[in-house]
Amino acid sequence: MALSIRLSRGGSKKRPYYRIVVADARSPRDGKFIEKIGNYNPLLGKDDEKRVVLDAERAKHWLGVGAQPTDRVARFLDAAGVKERAARSNPKKAEPGEKAKERAEERAEKLKAQQEAEAEAANAPAATEEPAADAAEATAE
């Protein structure tokens, strides 16, 4: 039987409260479990000691038996000093998708075209003002 140490949700709508339980990996999230080894209340402040309450001794026992913690529970166990959690890295997580990249390229092209048009417009009146200024000087003399 594959064991997992995971969260089981309780509490009402928009007021979550979780039990940290050891359960068969095939059982439903809020279903039957073997043992409750702690609880987690995300509504409390991060510095509150009652936010995560964990029986470290029982957690060590279940880890020794072969129970696998979920990612969130592994974080709690690492904070409690029960089990070291390896840092995970996903460098592609922040990378935009293909459509977003295409839209960014289109925006860059439009911006470049607009800047070129503004540059031409800035150069064109300057070229037409010089002969007009020469003509104005000629009439003034």
TrEMBL record:
Q: Which gene encodes it?
A: rpsP
User: Which InterPro entries would you find in this protein's record?
Assistant: Ribosomal_bS16, Ribosomal_bS16_dom_sf
- Give GO MF terms, alphabetically: structural constituent of ribosome
What name does the UniProt record give this protein?
Small ribosomal subunit protein bS16
User: Entry's SUPFAM superfamilies?
Assistant: Ribosomal protein S16 (SSF54565)
| Organism name | Sphingomonas adhaesiva
GO CC terms of this entry: cytoplasm; small ribosomal subunit
Similarity comment: family membership: Belongs to the bacterial ribosomal protein bS16 family.
| Keywords for the protein's UniProt record, in alphabetical order | Ribonucleoprotein, Ribosomal protein
Q: Is Translocase included in the keywords of this UniProt record?
A: no
GO annotations under biological process? translation
In this chain, composition skew of type Low complexity spans: 116-141
Region (Disordered), start-end ranges: 82-141
- Organism classification, top ranks? Bacteria, Pseudomonadati, Pseudomonadota, Alphaproteobacteria, Sphingomonadales
Composition bias of kind Basic and acidic residues appears in: 82-115
Task: State the Pfam families in the record.
Answer: Ribosomal_S16
